[in-house]
Amino acid sequence: MTPELFRRLVTQASHAPSVHNVQPARWRLDGDTAWLFEDRQVRLPAADPTGHDAAMSLGAALEGFAMAASLEGLHVSIGRADDDATSDLRPVARLTFEPGGVEDPLTAHVAARQSWRGDFPTPSSEDRQAAASLASPDCIPVTGPHTIRAIAQLSDMASFGFMLQDAFRAELLSWMRLRRRHPDWARDGLNADAMRLGLLEKLGAGLVMGRGFRPLLHYRLAEKLLSEVDRTAGAAAIVVFHRPQGEDPFDSGRAFYRAWLRIEGAGFGAAVLAALADDPESAKTLAAMVELPEGRRIVSAFRIGRRPQDAAFARARRLLDELIV
């Protein structure tokens, strides 16, 4: 494993999704062994108090690394590492390499995958049929418009429940980059382009999420201003992603990334509806709506649809010198 090859693999791994785009994965090359660490300094104590979503993000990053290695004819063997409670860098996995890796077909969709938080064009019956074909052992696509709207309303209710928490809103706002002059606009977090915010939305987001929230709540305006019911209801499908109960979220994160790439491969853009899984009551309601198989748990959900032609935007990603430690 040369330093040059390692840098290429880390670059590809950095394209993996992560909660709030905080990018917690850090990498180190030690001879022919690579190490994956979690940077605990970017933990989300309000949004992710148990570290579940951080673990999923790390699993997705490792899956991206392994897929990139397959392009180089390498097979990656993974050994989980013990936790180091005394360091900001928590060792997560030890990676060794063997020749004979077969190119993973999902690598073809890594470069195009981006979260699409904007509106979707009105879906056609062909779009809904294509979305239905995404059914798999861990994905349940919902394509009926009435059920999609019901899920959209459920998602909004769950999301607003979290927004009522001052610490949650403050933390989310700290990772939002609403102005291009923000020093981390192109580095991490959720910038206004990624969130598809218009000029007025950029100007108002800080107020709605910040000091204006409580007055707007008093006048019953906060929920309306933050609602995404219509945007979600306009999707071609809601894809409910589920995994075995009790599964390590690191492993769930690996499968999550692969599910997203399959969505991308079918020609759809996607945005994550995390609150549907994070709120226990909403997850329970959604499980009943989609007749979730016994022994499974809802890990996440996507709203998917065809992206408009102007959907592309630059990724916000940390520099390699930050990721390699």
UniProtKB/TrEMBL annotation:
Residues 116-136 are annotated as: Disordered. It comes from the Bacteria. This is Nitroreductase domain-containing protein. It comes from Tateyamaria armeniaca.
